[in-house]
Amino acid sequence: MNYEVIYHQQGTDTLTAKEHTHTNQLEIIQIVKGTGNLLLGKREYHFSDRDVFCFDGTVPHYISPEEGVPYERNKLSVEKSTLSLIIDENLCKNIYFKSDAETAMLMDHVFRQIKKHSEEGQPFNAMSEIFHLLGICYSHNTNLLPSQEGPLH
């Protein structure tokens, strides 16, 4: 199982505002707090507190938090080949939703559990929580992002 989880990352990192891709990865980003823009393919999306993006990491992307505004996020990158044993790869669609307070708290808890299980060397427990997180995202799959080929907005 190949995955990376970042829990409550504050501020920027080396990939912030730099277009990049991830080989064979699905990425989930939960904005805990802050505002800014996410570029996905050729489209730009504004984000704010409690926004969630689930997308194919092989699509060029970057995240650019607004300068001078506190920024905090949770992030999961997981190999799609790991997931394909359980779910159809076509489910790795680009999903966006604004979570309500209850869903935001649940997602935060699940990210924390993935981090905890990862640190404690419990990969099966971590993967169970990863599927829980994916279930939350896919329950919002009516919120698909438009094609990444369109103009920026």
The number of distinct β-strands equals 8
Alpha plus pi helix count: 3
Describe the oligomeric state of these chains in a short phrase.
Answer: single chain
Task: Compute the CA-based radius of gyration.
Answer: 14 Å
Share in helix: 25-40%
Account of the protein in words:
This protein is α+β, with helices and mostly antiparallel strands and 153 residues long. The protein contains 3 helices and 8 strands; from the N terminus they run βββββββαβαα. It has helices at 80-83, 101-119, 123-138; strands at 3-10, 25-33, 36-40, 43-47, 51-56, 61-65, 72-79, 95-98. The strands form 2 sheets. It has a 5-stranded antiparallel β-sheet. Helix 2 (101-119) runs antiparallel to helix 3. The longest helix has 19 residues, at 101-119. The protein is globular, with a radius of gyration of 14 Å. Residues 148-153 have low confidence and may be disordered.
